[in-house]
Each structure stands twice: as C-alpha cells, then as structure tokens.
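Customer ticket, subject: "Can you confirm the structure for Class I SAM-dependent methyltransferase?"

Message body: Hello, I'm evaluating your service for our small team and ran a test protein. I'd like someone to confirm that this is what the system normally returns, since I don't have a reference to compare against.
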Amino acid sequence: MSLPVPSSDALAASHALQTLIAADIERHGGAISFARYMELALYAPGLGYYSGGSAKLGKDGDFTTAPELSPLFGAALARVAAAIIAQSAPRILEFGAGTGKLAFDILTELAAAGVAVERYFIVELSGELRGRQQEKLRDFPQVQWLDALPASFDGVVFGNEVLDAMPVHLVSKHPEGWQELQVTVADGRFQYLETPAGDELLAQVARQIPEHEQLPAGYVTELHGIASSFMATLARMLASGQANAAFLFDYGFPAHEYYFDQRAAGTLMCHYRHHAHPDPFYYPGLQDITAHVDFTAMALAAQDAGIDVLGYLNQAGFLIGAGIGELLLRTDPADAMAYLPQARAMQKLVSPAEMGELFKVLVVGKGVELPQALVLQDRTHRL
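Agent reply: Thanks for trying us out. I re-ran your input and got the following:
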C-alpha cells in the first residue's frame, strides 16, 4: 500500500503496542478473537489509537467527521435538542465528543436561541481528545466529563460515529459451517487464523444475519455483539428515566441491506492520514479500525432492553427535517466568500453521493415525540 510513512516516534509507539498484543496472544494460547485485537489496537492504555496521543480528526488527523465540516451540523442538532428538552430535562449527554466541536456548536446555538442547558455530559475514552475538548469548551461551565454512563438519564443523548468504532468479531462461511477469524502471530506478523465458531457466535449469526444459510462459501462479515451490548446498556439507562431520546449517527445499513452476496469481504475499513484501506494489521495504534453498523441489530438490542425505537432516518432526511437549509440561509447568499463554503459543506452532509445516504440516524428513547418534520422522514419500516 502507498500510505504516508509514520514518524519515528509513531513507529516506536506502534511497535510497543504490537509487542503488547503479541504477549496477549501468547497468554491466550496462540490466538485471540479479532474483537480482542481491535479492542487493544484502539483502546490499549496509552498506546491504542483512541487512548494514545496522536491527533485523529481534521486535516492533520486521519479522517473528518460531520461536526468538523460545518457548524450547521451542530446547529441542526441543537434545534432537535431544544424540541426534546422542552419535553424532558435541560441535560445533554454526548459519547465520544471528538475535538469538542459538536458540543461547542450545539451549546452556542442553544444559547443564542435562549435555551438553557443545565448540564452537558461527555463520555470520552481518549485522554488526548478529552484534553482538546476541555480547551475547546472552556467557556461553557455546564460541561462535565464522565468515565461511565449514569444509571438513569432524562434529556438528550448524542453519539456521532461511536458505534462503528466498537470491536467486532469476524466470521467466514464455509461448506462445513461458520468459522471465526481469530488473530495469531506467524513469521513475526499478525495474521488471521480460522477456527470453528463457538456456540455464542453461531447464535449471533442466526440472530443477526437474515438467510445466512444462503450466503456463498467464503463469505466474510462482522458480528456486532459488543455494540449490541452497548445499546442494551444505553437502553437500560434511558428506560430508568422518564423522558429522553438518544440520537446515534453512523454509517451502516439495516440487516437486509448489510448482508448482500456482493459484500462478501465484509465492511471492515481502516483510516490513516485520510487514506482508507482494508488492512487492520498495518501499524496498530496509528490507524482507526471501523466496521459499518448493522442498525437492525442495534434497534433490536435497544428494544429487547426495554426502550422504544423512535425513528430511523438517513442523515439527509434528518438534517433537512431539522432545518439545516434555513440555517444556511442565515448567511447571505450574496456574500459568496461566506456563503459558498457553507453551502458546499451542507451539500456534502446531505448529498446521497456523499454522507446523506450512507450515514443514518437511529433514535431510541421514551416519553417524548420527535418533531413532525423528522417523523415525515422516518424509515423505521426498513429496519
């Protein structure tokens, strides 16, 4: 692969993480699940991609998220937050707040609209990103960082590109049955090792993948047990409250679109310095590793844990329903220098050829109603 060459310090950090992962493999008898490998590659203390010190977002990082593209994204979410707060409580909780840009834009827009936010909680695993958030949000005293979810919550929850970074198991279809793709070390390199899938993974296959018996031999895909467990935990927190809604933005598909014959290599993807590639063993700790989200599995996990699915929309429908077009027109179109960059950013956010269709919004909660403009865009029937 033709990718940028890491610095010597970055290489040293990656080599240290590789040594840690190799030791974990040895402790587990020569192989670990891919989910365990992905967990260490992303979250090993001080060395993992999200727990280390490298910049991840923006032009100097590895990828750009919707809040980084334009303040219109956060302003649109603030409009929806105001509608939910009016029915619940003046509190917001955000998972994985990145640079703090989304929180900044939401709080700025709500303040301008005269909507008071009593507390803005952030759950962040990355020490480097938490530091950037604290600097970005220093003028908002209502922001508070948490290490874990509260037992109960009323208000609004946001999670932008959180589910895609949760570790997944990999499985492969064979004539004799499903195999798990584990990770081992051979010739000094991490490699896949196929082993018969255990009963728990086989149960996940049966529950998660429609018509899995008809998939062709050699078909590889992801199992989202960890993300499903997260959704169950989130749902229990919401179910313990009185009125709330959680909005989860991510790229992915409902199950009947996820497990196509043509998607026979799965959806696993890595991001390094704005280059996307499929090799999760390339410099562990220096690149993001993600998988597309199975939104059907996420919705079912939330329902099974006692919370309602309030909506499922593509990002375009959500943002248009939230009034992003009106927000754009607060900038005078005659002022081309100011208007055109915002118009281009909005186009990327809502265009079906960009983020508008690939990114979806799953809404779960209880005791509140979504704004009618969002209800009109709902696709829950497609889950």
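A couple of notes from the result: The CA atoms of residues 131 and 160 lie 19 Å apart. The chain has a mean pLDDT of 94. Feel free to reply with more questions.
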